[in-house]
Amino acid sequence: MKITIIAPMDNIMDAAREVLAQNDLHWPGEIEVLPGLLEAGLEQACQAVNRGTDVIISRGGTATLITKHVDVPVVEIQVTAFDILRALKSMGHVSGTVGVIFMRRFLFECEKLGDLLGIPIQEIFIDNELRIEEEVLEKAGRQGIGTLLGDASAVKLLTPRGLKVGLIESSVESVRKAVIEAGNLADVRRREREKAELFRTIIDTSADGIIAIDKNEQITIFNPAIERIYQLSGSEVIGRKIGDMISDDGLRGCLTGDTVERESVRRVNNRVFAIRRIPIKLGEDIVGAIANVQDVTQLQNFEQLVRQKLNKKGLVAKVHLEQLSAASAQMKVIKERVRQYAANDATVLITGESGTGKEWVAQSIHNLSLRQKGPFVAINCAALPESLLESELFGYEEGAFTGAKKGGKSGLFELAHNGTIFLDEIGDMPLSVQARLLRVLQEKEVMRLGADSVIPVNVRILAATNQDMMHLVDERKFRADLYYRLDVLRLHIPPLRERVEDIPELVSRFLEKSPHSHIVGITSEAVKFLQKQFWRGNIRELENVIERIKLLAPGPFIEERMVREELSASGHIFHDDIAGHTGPDMTERHKLEQILFEEKYNYTQAAKRLGISRTTLWRKLRQRQKT
């Protein structure tokens, strides 16, 4: 920041230097002192403005002249009663009325000062600083004034006319006060300029078009974005009536407070824009209006960008098709189905026992599809209570229920927009939530809890279950209409015991997950032994077993003995045990496993042999798994 003092007389130069020499102003900026009277002072001031000065200080006619020709604030050094007393003292004996010349009208009340001194004093106000002689001579003659007091310009111009003119000099304290005032003014002006520059930068760099009008309907803001939209330059339209330049009755309607369309979608130059209009109020008075114009295409792109950012928060599918083990004929067929289903956008119902890798298959479908750059959102429908599952899937508005997050929350369907949502264990979804899911499938839109409007979503649904869905439909535990909506494309993942050819590749992959492990491989005997087991927990159980052996085995290779010891310690039922375990003492667990094994895990045939329903068999198996 910078202050320039234009001193019209030597006294002010000296006083200013003394003020600066005291070094107690605590002014962080620069202060320069320059001589200059009237036109010379104006020239100095103009040059200072060009150099970037913030405030100018001067006095008398010079200050008045500068004020009229520059656009920076001018602080005038005030004349005090002590300044006048000093001037009178320097004049010696004074007779008659004394006239004090002022270039501006101040509430100084010189007459009261004269009453105290016993000297008649009159104020002479000059309207034109360049016509001091004419005005003073005319007014002094009319008022009978014999002695004059004034600034340097008055002394310079009137003394040659034979008038007795005393110089009113400024005290150091008067100059100090002017400098302090100028410093405060410079601070305020700098802050105002910073705000104005911030406002201008925000307006000019906004991707949205912004247009504003004043109460007279004249355009006051027309930023670069709005210039591109309407193909008009700001210089063409600023100051013009909005009705003469563009068609926007809504913006003018804001001025009158009429009920107008504050938000609308309009086509301008073959492009579609969302327009929002707001009145500008000063207290209760409407003093203008402003409109925000957004390109709908840009809004959609930004929405997509936001959703892509969500992907970085973990909403991604990490498994690709090549990562699915496919040594077995069954898995080769499944991988081909994945390729076919990925090219389609229909819903897929993935069935299979727990632990067979249904989510891996779902992620592979997503990563091969056109939605691969969108989010992949997975949720286990059996892991959450009904109320929480509903709010997680569909979101909620603020105040929808006790404990609802301020501002509401987006549901998983919203997060999965332009991507895929994977609903695991869909058979355990409560009926009330099934109804809402059916609407999403039918209408492609969701309604948050507590909301009164819908949100369009573009989501592909992949669902998975380890249950007999038709049986759930028969028992009215699952909606038939929803089931047929989900079961458009079906993919059954066989259990691990039916595709033992995949076990070597799976084991190798599990070992590679820990590259710094002391285990470097597994013997062929150990692999063959693993291939003979049932793996009721399928891939998940196999992976857990390998992880434990990697930790406990001395290495460097996993041997059959280590596998047998680990399986035995974990209560695993070996193939040989089941095949040879017969007789009246066979436990129900062994019996179920034996018959399922003999029937190649055909649950319908196994249920018939056991003399129980398929549902009862499922229930017993699930009870066994829990224990």
TrEMBL record:
Lineage: Bacteria, Bacillati, Bacillota, Negativicutes, Selenomonadales
Keywords, alphabetical: ATP-binding, Nucleotide-binding, Transcription, Transcription regulation
A molecular function (GO) term: sequence-specific DNA binding
SMART domains given in the database record: AAA, PAS
Database matches in InterPro entries: AAA+_ATPase, AAA_lid_NorR, Homeodomain-like_sf, HTH_Fis, P-loop_NTPase, PAS, PAS-like_dom_sf, PAS_fold
Keyword Glycoprotein included in the entry's annotation: no
One GO-annotated biological process of the protein: regulation of DNA-templated transcription
Residues covered by the Sigma-54 factor interaction domain: 324-551
The species this protein was found in: uncultured Sporomusa sp
Domain spans labelled PAS: 195-249
Pfam families linked to this entry: AAA_lid_14, HTH_8, PAS, PrpR_N, Sigma54_activat
Name of protein: Propionate catabolism operon regulatory protein
